[in-house]
Amino acid sequence: MAEPRSDSAVPAFWRSLGLPGIIDVHVHFMPQRLMSAVWGYFDEAGPLIGTEWPIRYRDSEQERLDFLHGLGVRAFTSLAYPHRPGMAESLNEWAAQFAARVPECLQSATFYPEPGVEEYVRRALDAGARVFKVHLQVGGFDPRLKELDAVWGMLADAGVPALVHAGSGPVANGFTGPGPFGEVLARHPGLTAIVAHLGAPEFEGFFALAAVHEGVHLDTTMIFTRFAALAPFPDALLPRLRDLGLEGRILLGTDFPNIPYEYAHQLESLAALDLGDDWLRSVCWRGPAHLFGLS
């Protein structure tokens, strides 16, 4: 498999695999004021970033949509997330409106431990939310909080995945790592989860959770790339990465647009693992298509 070394090579990459395109489960679209604030935080290398992190695709919303369309990204998320109380419900309303006008978008939602969280999560589910973004690092909250127990149960019952930044990279807090979220999974074994960044840097711990919980998936976001903000993936886990990928539980994620390299570099890095074309087909299309019921 030829590795796509530039964005212009991405369509040839997925065509050579016999795919109709690619599906990216880790993409950020959010209200422009919030997106600008996020970009400003990256510019300042804020405390949760910890390193210089230039944003490559600092374009208008329409330009970013056109870019993904041109690459052949047939479905993607719009992962917005709160860093304080009082944000989540309005973000969910914005995300629902965004998905209504962007057919390729998998309607996304989020939540925060606060009064009314059960009610607005139910409204988001009823409105068609297909994935919930949970950022334990930025949100700074414990996923085991009792006020969230019913929310995790609602997602488990609905079969709607939670895409959770639970790993401690790039900067840890007291609620990251496989321990706290592992307790959530123990309470709600039917929960479908996507662990962002393959759980970096606690790869072993999150892969162990995937061995116990069939609903645990992991996304590839930023792992294997030349950018050193997250930990290197251990060679000893490559056989398990291959197996989980062929099972449809390793999913393509990129963190677009908040990346400091070309979009193609994520795909180039995955192809360079030499885990086989079937593995790439599963990661880039079949796994996420099956999870989200896409044709």
From TrEMBL:
<dbReference type="GO" id="GO:0005737">
    <property type="term" value="C:cytoplasm"/>
</dbReference>
<dbReference type="InterPro" id="IPR032466">
    <property type="entry name" value="Metal_Hydrolase"/>
</dbReference>
<dbReference type="InterPro" id="IPR006680">
    <property type="entry name" value="Amidohydro-rel"/>
</dbReference>
<dbReference type="Pfam" id="PF04909">
    <property type="entry name" value="Amidohydro_2"/>
</dbReference>
<keyword id="KW-0456">Lyase</keyword>
<dbReference type="GO" id="GO:0016831">
    <property type="term" value="F:carboxy-lyase activity"/>
</dbReference>
<dbReference type="InterPro" id="IPR032465">
    <property type="entry name" value="ACMSD"/>
</dbReference>
<dbReference type="GO" id="GO:0016787">
    <property type="term" value="F:hydrolase activity"/>
</dbReference>
<protein>
    <recommendedName>
        <fullName>Amidohydrolase-related domain-containing protein</fullName>
    </recommendedName>
</protein>
<feature type="domain" description="Amidohydrolase-related">
    <location>
        <begin position="23"/>
        <end position="294"/>
    </location>
</feature>
<dbReference type="GO" id="GO:0019748">
    <property type="term" value="P:secondary metabolic process"/>
</dbReference>
